């Protein structure tokens, strides 16, 4: 039995062999007995069947496999679709005017421009890691007067925002211009904003955000939040199975302290807040709206 020429034989510590196949990126281990039989050119029927099943035997099938894989690696044609949309004409140096609560990283132009390029490359939901990791903002949120909401969609406590440090930060004109530039939008001045407090069992059902909303943001206010605590903002697709509503999760964002999630809502931006399992989840969510 002749094996393909590109296979690499690696001796094992027990006298056996490892056969590495660089075409299919697979590794097969041979016992000392199998390795010795293969060296003699008389593999057992079981070993011969195993090697053929892994496409390691030389022959017409191996030649066709080799040609197909090597050709694919050398001559891959990529369909990149339409050219990405143009970058918005934004003065990214406006980041230098952001409030002191914003981290120094995001008070410079480079990360904003890089985020805009991520959006141009096709990423629809963008997270500003470490945007404003301020415990003072969390304490402000904790002190707000919350009202309990239990509806078909929302099980949480809400405090509408119209002023204060959180409001001033998230409605700052430079921030609105920069986020609009990242998303490729001109955002209106008007914003609607709520602080949310969710305890164990609280959640928000699937929704895409309304047609009047030009852009959505959510600022996490939970230090060291863990995935097993639940409460993630989860994007996905609603559906039905056996007549019962379902939701298939595609992407999750945790409400970490100071992380700002932004996206342009549309018919495809279905998302929910998964039930909180442990702890108290604080966030501020808002929208730039028209009309």
CATH topology of the largest domain: Jelly Rolls
> In CATH terms, what is the architecture of the largest domain?
Sandwich
Low-confidence stretches: none
Which structural class matches the secondary elements?
alpha+beta
Proportion of residues in β-strands:
25-35%
Task: Tell me the count of domains.
Answer: 2
> Quick one: biggest sheet?
11 strands, antiparallel
Spatial separation of the terminal alpha carbons? 77 Å
In CATH, the homologous superfamily of the largest domain goes by the name: q2cbj1_9rhob like domain
- Specify the number of helices: 7
Rg? 28 Å
What is the averaged pLDDT score? 91
Percent range for helical residues? 10-25%
- What characteristic shape results from the CA principal axes? elongated
CATH class value of the largest domain: Mainly Beta
Could you tell me the number of beta strands?
Answer: 14
Order of helices and strands: EEEHHHHEHEEHHEEEEEEEE
Can you describe this structure?
The structure is a single chain. The protein is an alpha+beta fold. The protein folds into 2 domains: 8-74, no CATH class; 92-289, Jelly Rolls. The protein is 24% helix and 29% strand. It has helices at residues 32-40, 45-53, 60-74, 109-120, 135-142, 165-170, 173-183; strands spanning 8-11, 17-21, 26-30, 126-128, 147-150, 154-161, 191-198, 203-207, 213-220, 233-241, 244-253, 260-263, 271-273, 281-289. A hairpin with a 3-residue loop joins strand 5 (147-150) and strand 6. Helix 4 (109-120) runs parallel beside helix 7. The radius of gyration is 28 Å and the shape is elongated. The mean pLDDT is 91.
């Amino acid at each position: 039995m002749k094996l393909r020429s590109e296979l690499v034989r690696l001796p094992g510590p027990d006298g056996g062999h490892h056969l590495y196949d660089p075409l299919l990126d697979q590794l097969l281990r041979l016992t000392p007995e199998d390795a010795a039989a293969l060296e003699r050119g008389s593999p057992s029927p079981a070993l011969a069947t195993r090697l053929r099943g892994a496409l390691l035997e030389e022959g017409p099938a191996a030649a066709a496999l080799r040609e197909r894989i090597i050709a694919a690696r050398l001559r891959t044609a990529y369909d990149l679709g339409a050219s990405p949309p143009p970058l918005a004409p934004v003065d990214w140096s406006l980041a230098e005017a952001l409030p002191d609560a914003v981290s120094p990283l995001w008070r410079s132009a480079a990360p904003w421009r890089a985020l805009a390029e991520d959006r141009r490359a096709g990423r629809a939901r963008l997270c500003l890691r470490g945007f404003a990791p301020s415990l003072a903002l969390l304490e402000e949120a904790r002190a707000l007067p919350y009202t309990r909401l239990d509806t078909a969609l929302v099980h949480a406590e809400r405090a509408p925002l119209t002023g204060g440090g959180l409001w001033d930060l998230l409605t700052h004109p430079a921030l609105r211009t920069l986020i609009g530039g990242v998303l490729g939008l001109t955002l209106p001045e008007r914003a609607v904003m709520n602080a949310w407090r969710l305890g164990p069992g609280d959640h928000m059902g699937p929704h895409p955000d309304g047609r009047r909303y030009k852009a959505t943001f959510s600022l996490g206010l939970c230090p060291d939040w863990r995935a097993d605590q639940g409460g993630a903002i989860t994007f996905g697709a609603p559906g039905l199975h056996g007549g019962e509503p379902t939701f298939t999760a595609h992407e999750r964002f945790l409400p970490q302290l100071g992380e700002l999630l932004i996206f342009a809502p549309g018919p495809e931006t279905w998302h929910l807040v998964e039930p909180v399992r442990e702890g108290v989840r604080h966030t501020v969510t808002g929208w730039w709206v028209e009309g």
